[in-house]
UniProtKB/TrEMBL annotation, chain A:
Gene3D superfamilies: Ribonuclease Z/Hydroxyacylglutathione hydrolase-like. This is MBL fold metallo-hydrolase. Residues 28-217 form the Metallo-beta-lactamase domain. Signal peptide: none annotated. Coiled coil: none annotated. Pfam families: ODP. InterPro entries: Metallo-B-lactamas (IPR001279), ODP_dom (IPR045761), RibonucZ/Hydroxyglut_hydro (IPR036866). It comes from the Bacteria.
From TrEMBL, chain B:
This is Chemotaxis protein. It comes from the Bacteria. It comes from Candidatus Methylobacter oryzae. Gene3D superfamilies: 6.10.250.3200.
């Protein structure tokens, strides 16, 4: 599992991905970790297949008992099917996930972990002195969907928005936006169902000060590429399968 | 899934299927008892010795049904335990793998506690499964006991039937069906016990 520190300040952001031991037939995912002095939050911790390499990677940054919070942007298996395993490994943790998915996500087993339902209009996660904002992103692509914004680090974690499917060993940042577009087009057209939801989200997100836009698959966008992505997405027609 | 887990799932599932067959047969006995009662009533004095037997058969069938209902609840508990054990074992294996993969990571040692915990709860499940299997075997023994008693009654019924003149044939048929049913129950329950006995608390 490759680890890349993407923010270092009073707290840290680390991106985990490009797992070389991953079976070929499962989709590659990016996991993000927010680390404060005594706590640790895993964003979209990944599928059950990924649990062991992910746990092993986190142990480079935090002891198990300091993994206090998990966040699931939505209900998909590549996002959170590892929940049942985290549930047995962590003794004092919370899962922040969309309220409407609670009854569904509990199928993965969530007994010792406390499910903290995120209401439709969003909320916050407080991690020691850090306050992260939960930005509604419903229907992008899931009907109950949130992104995480860190105003201090200026990072927006966007789940499946901004994703691209690429081969292993792909760089973690977009380096040529024009060339990257073709890797994202079909994904966004096919997975994102609603032009209206997209418009509302872009309006909301344009008001945020973002250095890094961090999707759950593919590469992150940095600096001017963030705006380029929003403009490109704004102009794209989605929901093409009907 | 290991072979051990697979056969445990199969053993638990087989109890439920064998027992549903026992249930059908026990209901047949109860029906036979009602039938016998009607015949004995018509036969009057000629089947005097038969009347208390029919009550006894009926009672026996009712008790068997009750026992099997209880055992079915137990079988469900065993099924849940098997699922639980399967999950705990999977977690334990993943935790061990994570520890191995962490190598000399700064906080690798912190995994020791979850590994130990997972191992303990996995062993807990195994122990509880064995304990519950022992209890279930005891209940199955009770059903077998009932089946044996039913066969003895069937033998007595045959003797009583021989005194019943023109009712001889129909009463003998009743005795026959009770005997056959008891035999089936005995065999099915025996199969359950064999499937489970390898998990018994030793
Ligand atoms: Fe998804
Ligand atoms: Fe995804």
């Amino acid at each position: 599992m490759k680890m890349t520190k993407i923010y270092e300040g009073s707290h840290q952001w680390i991106m985990f991905g490009r797992d070389e031991g991953k079976p070929n037939n499962i989709i590659d995912t990016n996991q993000y970790v927010v680390r404060t002095p005594n706590r640790c939050l895993l964003l979209d911790p990944g599928g059950a297949e990924l649990f062991a390499p992910m746990m092993a990677a986190v142990l480079h940054h935090a002891p198990v008992d300091q993994i206090t919070d998990l966040f699931a942007s939505h209900q998909d298996p590549d996002v959170i099917s590892s929940l049942g395993l985290w549930d047995q490994a962590l003794t004092n943790a919370k899962l922040h996930a969309p309220a409407i998915w609670e009854g569904f996500l509990r199928h993965y087993s969530c007994e010792s972990i406390e499910y903290v339902p995120i209401p439709d209009n969003g909320g916050t996660i407080k991690l020691e002195s850090v306050e992260l904002q939960l930005i509604p992103a419903h229907y992008l692509h899931s009907s109950g969907n949130f992104h995480v914004y860190d105003p201090q680090a200026k990072i927006l974690m966007t789940g499946d928005v901004g994703a691209a499917i690429e081969g292993p060993d792909t760089p973690v940042f977009v380096d040529n936006f024009a060339a990257h577009v073709e890797k994202m087009r079909f994904w966004h057209q096919r997975w994102m169902p609603s032009n209206q939801a997209k418009r509302v989200w872009i309006e909301r997100v344009r008001n945020l000060d973002i250095d890094i836009l961090a999707p759950q698959h593919g590469r992150m966008f940095k600096g001017d590429d963030v705006k380029r992505f929003l403009d490109w997405f704004d102009a794209l027609q989605v929901g093409i399968a009907v | 899934m290991t072979n051990q887990t697979k056969s445990q799932f199969i053993a638990v599932a087989s109890i439920t299927s064998e027992l549903s067959a026992v249930m059908v047969v026990a209901k047949e006995i109860s029906l036979a008892a009602a039938n016998a009662k009607a015949i004995a009533f018509r036969a009057g004095d000629k089947a005097k010795g038969f009347q208390p037997i029919t009550d006894f058969i009926n009672e026996l069938a009712k008790e068997t049904i009750e026992l099997v209902t209880n055992i079915n609840i137990y079988a469900l508990v065993l099924y849940r335990l098997t699922v639980d054990e399967f999950q705990k074992t999977a977690a334990y294996n993943k935790f061990e793998l994570a520890t191995k993969m962490a190598g000399d990571a700064t906080y690798a040692k912190s995994m020791q506690e979850p590994v130990n915990q997972a191992k303990l709860s996995m062993q807990d499940c195994q122990r509880q499964f064995k304990r519950d299997v022992s209890q279930l075997l005891g209940q199955l023994e009770a059903v077998m006991h009932h089946a044996r008693a039913a066969r003895v009654i069937a033998a007595n019924s045959r003797i009583e039937a021989s005194q019943a003149g023109e009712y001889l044939q129909s009463l003998q048929a009743v005795a026959e069906s009770v005997d056959k049913a008891a035999h089936t129950i005995h065999d099915n329950v025996q199969r359950c016990r064999i499937a489970l006995s390898i998990y018994r608390n030793s």
